[in-house]
Amino acid sequence: MSKVSLTVNGKAVTAEVEDRTLLVHLLRDHLNLTGTHVGCDTSQCGACIVHIDGRAVKSCTTLVGQANGANITTIEGISKGDELHPMQAAFRDNHGLQCGYCTPGMIMSAIDIVNRHHSSTGGDLDEETVRQELEGNICRCTGYHNIVKSVLDAASRMKVAQAAE
Ligand code: FES
Ligand code: FES
């Protein structure tokens, strides 16, 4: 057993966990943050993606001990009260989801993609890049077209929001 301290969605969390505990299990089973999903046992689907210190990471392949001291953000932590994150709003407006199972992981990946491309290219993100970047996220429903559309739309919304800050 090990004692870990981390910040999850802005709140300090301390837990005593077995060394083999995965971050996704701490989030879902101990903290009741069930928006982070488990969609495979082969680290392929991306349904479990959260942010660790701002970068998208598969929480099904991260031991809690590896996240000790880190800042974790889950899908539950990205809206501001009732105001959706621009990525969530873009998925809603562009029909970027059907069953929704992959959506939390898609959205957490997509925010990281847009953030990285905003800082490296000033915000220009094209369809091919989004498709390549989302290779670690599997969706069994949508055919990806509206997901890519959502990410590109959100990239514009996030650029406008950043410019206004
Ligand atoms: S549950 Fe993590 S990649 Fe599928
Ligand atoms: S919306 Fe159903 S798996 Fe993606």
TrEMBL record:
Matches recorded under PROSITE patterns: 2FE2S_FER_2 (PS51085)
Origin organism lineage: Bacteria, Pseudomonadati, Pseudomonadota, Alphaproteobacteria, Hyphomicrobiales
Name by which UniProt lists this protein: Carbon-monoxide dehydrogenase small subunit
Domain 2Fe-2S ferredoxin-type: 2-78
Iron among keywords: yes
Pfam families: Fer2, Fer2_2
Organism this protein belongs to: Rhodopseudomonas pseudopalustris
InterPro entries documented for this protein: 2Fe-2S-bd, 2Fe-2S-bd_dom_sf, 2Fe-2S_ferredoxin-like_sf, 2Fe-2S_ferredoxin-type, Beta-grasp_dom_sf, Diverse_Oxidoreductases
GO molecular function, one term: 2 iron, 2 sulfur cluster binding
Keywords assigned by UniProt, alphabetized: 2Fe-2S, Iron, Iron-sulfur, Metal-binding, Oxidoreductase
CDD domains found in the cross-reference section: fer2 (cd00207)
